[in-house]
What does this fold into?
Amino acid sequence: MLHLLAKLDRPFFAIIVGKDKHIKRYTTLSEQLGLAGRVTFTGPVSDIDRYYADSDILMLPTRYEPFSTVVLEAMRGGNAVITTRQNGAAEILQDELLMDQSSDEKILPVMRRLLDETDYLEEIKNLNRSTVKEFSIERNARETLALIDAVMSESTAQ
It folds into this structure.
């Protein structure tokens, strides 16, 4: 991801949140790529919702994720989301926001457009807020209980 950020010829500020055993290597790499002052590393945080509220774009260049709840959280927080096709959550995102792999430079024009075009950014953010409503905990619990009830009813009928 740092290599992609280094290729953006636009003003931006990136906050990289989370724990990683290689954080020192990434900090050094960001400096080598000329990103000092444009990228900060927070480490683990307990108030992640604040970061979603204060940001516009979540970029999650994962190599594999069954279905990232981080994507749902960011969508609920009003972020445009860029991730890889290896993230199960990719199925609910617009195709133009998906990378084939974590270093896919074909995403750069989309990143630039999100940074340059406020209307486009807002369109994606609004679409995400609408989409994420379909994935509430309440709906998940209701459908899971209905499935359990159906299975239990079927087994007692036999």
Observations:
- The first helix runs from residue 2 to 6.
- The chain has a mean pLDDT of 92.
- Residues 7 and 108 are 8 Å apart (CA to CA).
